[in-house]
Amino acid sequence: MTTFVHSSDTLTRDALTVLQPGFAGTTAPDWLLRRVGEGLGAVGVFGRNVHSPEQLAALTERLRAEREDILVAIDEESGDVTRLEVVHGSSFPGNYALGSVDDVHLTRSVAQELGRRLAECGVNLNWAPSADVNANVGNPVIGVRSFGADPQLVARHTAAYIEGLQAAGVAACTKHFPGHGDTAVDSHHAIPRIDVDLDTLHARELVPFRAAIAAGSQSVMSAHILLPALDPDRPATVSPQILTGLLREELGYDGLIVTDGIEMEAISKVYGIERGSVLAIAAGCDAICVGGGLCDEETVLRLRDAIVGAVRSGELAEERLADAAARVRALASWTQRARGDVPEPGAEVQEGTAPGTGVSSDIGLVAARRAVRVTGSGDRLTEAAYVATFSPVANIAVGAETPWGVATALTELLPGTDADTYTDESADPVAAALEAAGDRRIVAVVRDEHRHAWMGRALDALLAARPDTVVVEMGLPQSEPRGALYAATHGAARVCGEAAVEAITDTKP
Questions:
Q1: In terms of Cα–Cα distance, which of 477, 501, 503, 504 is closest to 490?
Q2: Contacts of 249 (CB under 8 A, 6+ apart)
Q3: Is residue 260 among the annotated active site residues?
Q4: Active-site annotation holder among 260, 286, 305, 448
Q5: What pLDDT shows up at residue 394?
Q6: Tens digits of per-residue pLDDT, 276-294?
Q7: CA-closest candidate to residue 493, choices 426, 370, 405
Q8: Catalytic residue among 188, 224, 452, 490
């Protein structure tokens, strides 16, 4: 049962300050505005809260009417993980596409233009970039969210992304410390375990985080992963050895440390969200991210009162909570100062560039085009086709609500094109696709074929029947390229699909 504590109490204000909760709806509910007025330090924005940039700008303006220095955070990695463009798909390719191009100037420009758009909407903290080294190609949750498998490549693009984003006045939050790339388990569902020695950790996982710290990342997000070489008992989010010992003391990081979603089952199933939050702050976290799933007032009150109760019982040092709250306020002050350097919307700019940045406003499509790789000797498409999309179940981070693929762009370019989506539960998808295609050429779209045996079998059967099929891989291109044409986009953002269509029809400007 929730215990209500007087809102003017300093301890209660500090407990509210360290929370980064979500909410339901596209306008700020009264309960949220009330808690912001009482000291809530941040609000998290998710896809369910975004209808348009204009609506989001109005929402954040309303929040700042209650508290000018409120942190408004968003999980906007771009690419496969977008909240700002959840309805239509991202205007920017994700990390893997940028890593495949390996042009740090391009990565910096993409991040700066993304940051400019976020800042125009009133968002000043982005839970990105992912600095995970994707050492395990079977990773079910990172994949194309990583810049790649080479620690040095990931490091230089992580730094470039941070520099670009923060140049636009939006604080970066580098994740998922100490590295979520070498896992075969999704921490939304259980605790992943990384069994590597300290030498491997320093030579691989920590390289991008060192670069992020050197680049001035304003915040770092912890991972709910077990790393026995450092702490055999507790995942990183609640481990003093990892957050205080490694991140603070050994790596010298002095910015804000944020938890990954505290309601994720790697924490909530083991500790519960209340105790998990207390342990996280005690371990060295300064802010609790919650709201991807739990997004009501009762959740905020439960966490607030758990933190207050832990201080009063002596389980959590009052100084530790005060220090955490001070770091939240320091980041809020940074965003206010940085916001003064961001040009106002509508400022006079050079044609084709974003306001005040010198960065092309269509830099996302430019980057997506550079990331597409086409092999094979087949003819490009010139007439209406049939698109068969073989779709895996989306992980929670990506979400199922954001459209992906090439069907929309190809239909616009070649009228008469039809499309269907098939899953591992579809009855005889190959026969259905062949019947639906008729005489038209088939474009088979896959995503991480190497992780889905059913997808590989379907593709093999389809190519046996129709060797002129065009294959588009929109995940990690680990399987052997095949088909008359094979296009690897290195990500499934909307612009990746548009760039693929340009490549397989030879209509690239």
A1: 477
A2: none
A3: yes
A4: 260
A5: 73
A6: 999 999 999 999 999 888 8
A7: 405
A8: 188
